[in-house]
């Protein structure tokens, strides 16, 4: 409700009362929703052996790439990206998910993607494998 205080025209103050009208969703319901959404996305696994540079510098670059995706209003929420490393050696696994072909094309058109793709090839010594993968199942 909007109410006006008794003041001159130059001093009028408006207040707005907000009422929460959304249904509260449990963590389980939210996780199920996210899992269903992710299940229908296109997924890719990128694999390589780390061969060039320092892992610290590479991890910083990975962080910058992820932040660039999240900062892009056209990509945020439409691209999922996770980077994992084998604890026992230099094997890296990137799991990428895209909501649709348009999101994939938008990502591939970005300068930060092209630079990151090139850096990935460099740290891998030119040997990078990208494989389309299917979602089979997951825990809640």
Concise structural overview:
With 140 residues, this protein is of the alpha+beta class.
Can you walk me through this structure?
This protein is an alpha+beta fold. The chain has a domain at 41-134: Alpha-Beta Plaits, CATH 3.30.70.100. The protein is 37% helix and 24% strand. The radius of gyration is 22 Å and the shape is globular. Residues 29-37 have low confidence and may be disordered.
The name of the CATH architecture of the domain at 41-134 is 2-Layer Sandwich
Largest sheet: 4 strands, antiparallel
The top-level CATH class of the domain at 41-134 is Alpha Beta
The topology string of helices and strands comes to EEHEHEEHHE
User: Looking at the structure, what is the overall shape?
Assistant: globular
Query: How many helical stretches?
Result: 4
- Give the terminus-to-terminus CA distance: 41 Å
